[in-house]
Amino acid sequence: MPTLAYNDPKTDLDAWAARLQISREAIEVYATSDVIDLHIDSFIWTRIFGYDLSKRHGGGLLGRHFYSHCDFPRAMEAGLTGGVWLITTNPFLPAKVRRNLFFKNLRRFEGEFAKHPDVFRVVRTTAQYREARAAGLHGVFLGVQGGNCLDYDLADFDRLDPQHVLRITLVHLSNSSLGTTSSPAARLGGNDGLTNKGREYIEVLNAKKIFVDLAHISRRGFFDALEVHDKTQPLMVTHTGIDSVYAHWRNITDEQIRAVADTGGCIGVMFQSGFLAKRGASVETIVDHVARIIEVAGEDVPAIGTDYDGAISPPPELPTIVELPRVADAMLRRGWSAERIQKILGGNYLSVVERLRG
Questions:
Q1: Which sign does the torsion angle of CA 169, 312, 56, 16 carry?
Q2: Which residue, 195, 231, 235, 328, has most beta carbons within 10 Å?
Q3: Does any domain span residue 1?
């Protein structure tokens, strides 16, 4: 197997802090944390134009915009101890083709991690993640963006190994057989909520202990999903902004925050500048969104779901995954405790996974 080439930043914490121009204290908190990104979309570019995940890339043709935010070497240089790595659905293909392509992509994606067994291990539970970390490995959780990859026949879920996929985002940027996206361009008349098939879909996810991710869904669809969702299982919104910080169709309201918190779930704050602020989004803006979740629902709810490589434009201080420790530094400057910061960086997410899967 080829060796993954990267520089382990934890070998010199002073140099790491100096390189990012942040405090040594922030690096110490970060380096002793479980650091888990709830939404990494890099695989989409492997599929589209052969983006080599094993190679360390620089900025793309558009700089920090759109893609080339993350790859395997930079994930390790960012000190990520785990991540939810995504397979994103192409909604424009016929349902049967989407289904077949999903299973093909799942095998292909696992193969990317299998090239580096000394670095990565695919995990399904918090217990398995802990075992991977004890072995010095990055814990890979597999996720799906766009539940319509498996809307052809719900019996197709039986083809998945038990709990193989951690979570599924019900809808993405377009409407589907399951429900309506939050994008205003897609809500043209009629019912803008969850469909009957979407309700059946949630029941299947609950039975399989696959997390229902309510990022991207319309607000009516969100509350439709709450009605049918198993009340004993936690929910996730893996990558979003907060509407009471910046009012935007992509962001969730305080009522939605409370609803997720009431299930024992977690909410990941994303890094897309246009969803964080009208202009001038920064690392501080991201922390503003995290802070609002804490104000509404407490410090056991927020997490980080960057959406790197998901066609986003992150704040200038966070052009790639490598600069992620700057978020910890910004939180520390607000006087937040190391314990709170560690919860946000990964602890809250792991607690939620443990509630559902062990």
A1: negative
A2: 328
A3: no
What's the rounded Cα separation, in Å, for the pair 11 and 136? 14
Tell me how many domains the chain contains.
1
91, 148 Cβ separation under 8 angstroms: yes
pLDDT, tens only, 211-246: 999 999 999 999 999 999 999 999 999 999 999 999
304 phi/psi in degrees, rounded to 5: -120, 125
Could you please report the per-residue DSSP string of 129-194? HHHHHHTT-EEEEEEEE-GGGG-S-GGGGGGSPTT-S-EEES--SS--SSB-BS-GGG--SS--SB
At 225, list the tokens: 């999903």
Domain range for residue 121?
9-357
Residue 131 lies in a domain: yes
- Position 233 in a domain: yes
Q: What does the block give as tokens for 54? A: 């094993």
CA–CA distance, 88 with 111 (Å, rounded to integer)? 17
pLDDT tens profile 158-207: 999 988 999 999 998 888 999 988 888 666 555 689 999 999 999 999 99
CA 233 to the chain's CA centroid: 19
37 token code pair:
């990104």
* 224 contacts 193 by C-beta, under 8 angstroms: yes
Question: Is there a contact between 167 and 303 (Cβ–Cβ < 8 Å)?
Answer: no
Residue 98 lies inside a defined structural domain of this protein? yes
| Helix residue ranges, H only, the chain | 13-20, 24-31, 43-49, 72-77, 95-114, 126-134, 196-208, 219-228, 254-262, 273-276, 283-297, 325-333, 338-342, 348-357
CATH number at residue 269: 3.20.20.140
